[in-house]
Amino acid sequence: SPRMASDSPESLMTLCTDFCLRNLEGTLCYLLDNETLRLHPDIFLPSEICDKLVNEYVELVKTDSIFEPHESFFTLFSDPRSTRLARIHLREQIVQDQDLEAIRKQDLVELYLTNCEKLTAKSLQTLVSFSHTLISLSLFGCCNIFYEEENPGGCEDDCLVNPTRQVLVKDFTFEGFSRLRFLNLGRLIEGVNVETLLRPLASLAALDLSGIQLNDVGFLTQWKDTLVSLVLYNMDLSEEHIQVIAQLRKLRHLDISRDHLSSYYKFKLTRRVLNLFVENLVNLSSLDISGHTMLENCTIPSMEEKMGQTSIEPAKSSIAPFRGLKRPLQFLGLFETSLCRLTHIPAYKVSGDKNEEQVLNAIEAYTEHRPEITSRAINLLFDIARIERCSQLLRALQLVITALKCHKDDKNIQVTGSAALFYLTNSEYRMEQSVKLRRQVIQVVLNGMESYQEVTVQRNCCLTLCNFSIPEELEFQYRRVNELLLNILNQSRQDESIQRIAVHLCNALVCQVDNDHKEAVGKMGFVMTMLKLIQKKLADKTCDQVMEFSWSALWNITDETPDNCEMFLNYSGMKLFLECLKEFPEKQELHRNMLGLLGNVAEVKELRPQLMTSQFISVFSNLLESKADGIEVSYNACGVLSHIMFDGPEAWGICEPHREEVVKRMWAAIQSWDINSRRNINYRSFEPILRLLPQGISPVSQHWATWALYNLVSVYPDKYCPLLIKEGGIPLLKDMIRMASARQETKEMAR
Hints:
Leucine-rich Repeat Variant; 45% helix; 10-stranded parallel β-sheet; two-stranded antiparallel sheet
C-alpha cells in the first residue's frame, strides 16, 4: 500500500531539536547558581537551528503539559556571536517583555507575535532594535503592546489601590523600519492612529487590519504600486472603502470577509462592487467575501447555466461578475454565503459549507487567526463525519489536530474538535491511519482533558480514547492518561456517562500490562478511587456497570502486585466485599470479579493472615457451592482457600469452621465442575498455581492447582501449553506423580 505522508518518520533535525529542548542541561546548557540556564561557551549555532529551537520551544510549552518552561530560555539567544536568530514565531502567554528584550541584539528578518497579551509598550521599544533588518512583522492580537504602565506622581493612599495605570502610547510609529514589507496589525487596540503609525513605511506589500474599525482608509493609496495583499476581515465597509480598494491595482489577495454573527454591518455586497473588483484588480488570484449578505442576485439564472460537469472556467461561472475574470482564482472565500452552493465557481479552492472539500478549505484558511469561524467549520465537518463518510480523512484529521493545538483555551473549538475526532478515529477509518497520526490524536485529546473540566469536552475525549487499542496504543502516555482519568473519577460531582466511560478505560488500562505499570498506577491512588466509587454505589444500592467495572479494575490491578493487594486490605476492601455480597446476592458478574480479586490477595503469603477470620472463611466456604457464572465463582473461592490451606494446620487460627470440614467441601466442589468448562478468566502466568504442586501439606490445594492447569491446557491448548512449558510446569507435575502424599485422582490428572 502507498505510504502516507503522515507516516514518514520525523527528520533527524526535528528529533534532535526535541531532545535538546527536553534536556537543555544535558546538551546545550549548564545551570549557573542552580537557577539560570547558560549556553556552554564552545557552542555556535546558525539561524537554521536557533529558529527551530525557539519555535519548537514555543510549540512544546503550548501543547505539551509535561514540558516545563524555563524562565531564562530566551537569554540563551542574547549574543548573536554564538546563536543567530532570523525567523521566529512566538505565541500567547509564553512570551513576556523581558524575553523579547533578551534577544534585542539579533538581526531578525521575521517576527510573528500572535496573541501575546503579556507584551506591553516596553516591547514596542525592543522592536525598534530590529528595525533595520525586519521584513515581516505580526502583532496580531497583542492587545496590550500599545499600553505602558504609568506611576502616578507623589504616592498617596491611591498608590496602594492602583499602583500602575495603563496609558495608551500615542507617539510610536514605524519610523526607521526601512525594510518592512509584510505587516499584520490584526485586532489592534482602539485609539491607536493607524495612518500615523504606518505613514513612514515606504513600500508595504502585505497589510492585515483584521478587526479594526477605520472610517477612512484613503491613506492605503500611498502603497498602490506595492500592496499585493490586503486583509480587512470584520471591518465595516462603506462606498469610500470600496473606491479606495479599487485603486490598489497591484492586489493579488483581497480579504473583506466578516463573521456574520459578530455584530451588525450596514454594508451589503452588490453585483456592482464585485464587477468593480474584477475590472480594476486585474492581478487578483485570491478573494475572500465570506459572511457577506448579497444585496441583489448575482447568480446566472439556472436555465442559462452551461450544463454538464462543474467547471472553474470564468466564462461558465454561475456568479455573474466573475465571468469577467481573466483566469480562475486560486482561492475564493464563500464561507457562510449563499454563493458557495452554486454549480460553477471559477476558483481552484473554495471555502464554503456545501461539501467536505469546501469545509476543509475553510478550516485550513481560518484556523490560525479566526477561531470563531473555524469552530463553525469544524462543526460542519463533524456532521459530515457522523452522517456521511469522509473522503479526505487524513487531511481532515490533520486539520482538526492543528486547530485543537492552536486553540487549546477556546471552548467552542475544544467542544466541536473533540466531537469530530471521535467520529474521525472510529474503526471504519482505522486502516488509513498511521501510528504517528494516532499518537497525535491521543496527545490533543489528553491536552483537552487537561485544560477543560467542561462536561462535553471530557465526555468527547473519553469516548475518543475508546476508539484506540488499550493499553497498547496509550502505552506511550501511560501515566498521564491514568492521572487524568483518576482525576475525573475523583471529582465530587460526576456526570454518570463520563463516570461509566472513565471506569471502563481505567479497567482496560490495567488489564494485560506489566507489574511496574500496575504498581505506578496503584501509587497514584487507583485502588482508593475504585473503592470510593464502590462505596458510593453501595450507598445508592445500585449495582450497575460502574460497580462491576470498578471491581474488575481492582481484580486486574492486584494481579501479581502485592502492594496493591495490601492497599485493598488497608482501605477496608474486605468490608466492602462482604457488604456487596449481602446487598447483591444475585449479581453473578459482580461475584466473579470480587472473588477473582480475592484470589490475587490470597496469593500473597504476608496478607493471608488477614483473611483468616471465621467470617471470611465461612463466606468463602459457602461460595464453593455457588453456581454463579458457570464455575467461576466456585473456582475462585476454592483458589482462595487452596492458598490458605497451603499455609498448613498451624496457620488455621479459628475454631469455626473446622479445617477438615472446609477441606471436604473443597473436594466436593472440585469434583462437581465440568473439566471441559470454557473459562471467563485470563492467566498471564501460572506461577501462583505451580507453587501449590510441590507440597504435601495440603493435597486438596495440589488437586485444585492440577485441575486448573488440566482444564486450561485442554480447553485452550494453543495459549496455555507453551506457558506451562515455559514456566517449568512439566518437571513439577512429574515430581508430584511420584509423591506418596498426593491423591490418586490428582496423579491421574497430572499424568
